[in-house]
Amino acid sequence: MANDFLLQVRDLSVCFPSASGDVHAVNSVSFTLAPGEILGIVGESGSGKSTLAGSVMNLTPPPGKVTGGQIMFQGQELKSSLHAIPDGIRMIFQDPMSSLDPYFTIESQMIETLRATDSSTLSRKEALHTCSQMLARVGLDPKTVLKRYSFELSGGQQQRVMIALALLSDPSLLIADEPTTALDVTIQDQILSLIRKLNQETGMAVLFVTHNLGIVADLCHRVMVMYGGEIMESATCDALFDHPLHPYTQGLLKSLPKTEPYVAGTARQKLDSIGGPALDMANLPKGCVFADRCPYSTDRCREEKPALKAVSDQHFYRCHLGTEAEGGASHE
Ligand code: SF4
After folding, report:
1. Residue 127 CA, distance from chain mean position
2. What's the CA-to-centroid distance between 51 and ligand 1, angstroms?
3. How far apart are CA 119 and CA 295, in angstroms?
């Protein structure tokens, strides 16, 4: 039922005009997100994952524009023509430095953000108390952080401040666009644990954009794999990692490093990669967008665009090949 969803995106398309033609960054993408769910959007650079997330937040950078589709949040349609950031949704980005103002202390920025929300009646003392509580909640010492400028903080501290700023308006949905990519592995782990904890404590849903399937396995309940502006596969994490059906998903999983420790004197592990040319997004092929890189590609694949087909109520993939369960060819 539509009302069970916090977010419902139907047939969304986003296009960027360019000298070599229109770049179709997102093509007829549909998905849903339930309250309290963590959905990962995974894909390589140029797959459309960040553009998709940004368009939910009404942040499609000009001259790009949403050319079709509908976004429903809490049962209300979000209108891109209103140029407003939707209430109840907040976003954090890969580079927190670009979102924090270096001319103002963290205290000024947090109080300004708080007063811009429905808490505008708070006195300065009350606002400061709320900001301190929020910083403590994301694992920062308010006494150390409030009087500082963003450039005086580490990358991990900046990202925590961004999360605290996002939480000030008590969002139902946090969109996180590669928030840990610029951080070292230890800090990355801390930020992921924080997002997981906030999700469990507050029921806040999360749309997590990443190129890292390891993070998806660690954090998300469900995952959508994107390529060429389209969804290639969508499933629960368990189903996707145990039974990947799309050749692109299988290629991504094969390119993950194995976890066994390296033993001195043995051959070093060689990672698989997905070969083939990069997709020209201004000249998308008539058939399957993955055909030039797919080891199973046929004439039919180049002529006919595959539909997204269901193998269960939670597992979908876009490919002409069938699964063994359907009696068609298996990828294995
Ligand atoms: Fe590969 Fe064809 Fe499936 Fe596309 S439709 S992923 S080219 S087998």
Report:
1. 31
2. 24
3. 56
* In the chain, beta strands by DSSP E: 7-16, 23-33, 38-42, 65-73, 76-78, 89-92, 173-177, 205-210, 222-227, 230-236, 308-310, 316-318
| Ligand 1, atom nearest to 246 Cα | 6
Closest atom, ligand 1, to C-alpha of 320: 5
Where does residue 310 rank: exposed (0-12), middle (13-18), buried (19+ CB within 10 A)? exposed
How far, in Å, is the centroid of ligand 1 from the Cα of 146?
53
The two structure tokens encoding residue 228: 């060429």
DSSP for residue 80: G
Tens of pLDDT, residues 115-132: 887 556 788 888 999 999
Q: How far is the CA of 89 from the centre of ligand 1 (A)?
A: 36
Q: What is the pTM of this model?
A: 0.90
Tokens of 204: 């806040």
Structure tokens at 290: 């993955």
Q: Are 220 and 208 in contact (CB under 8 A)?
A: yes
Ligand 1 contact, 289 CB (< 6 A) = no
Euclidean distance between CA atoms 213 and 255, whole angstroms: 10
Q: Is 296 in the pocket of ligand 1 (CB under 6 A)?
A: yes
CA of 309 to the centre of ligand 1 (A): 13
Q: For 44-74, how does the pLDDT look when each residue is reduced to its tens digit (9 = 90+)?
A: 999 999 999 999 988 888 899 999 999 999 9
Long-range contacts of 249-252 (CB under 8 A, 24+ apart): 249/225, 249/317, 250/331, 251/293, 252/42, 252/213, 252/225
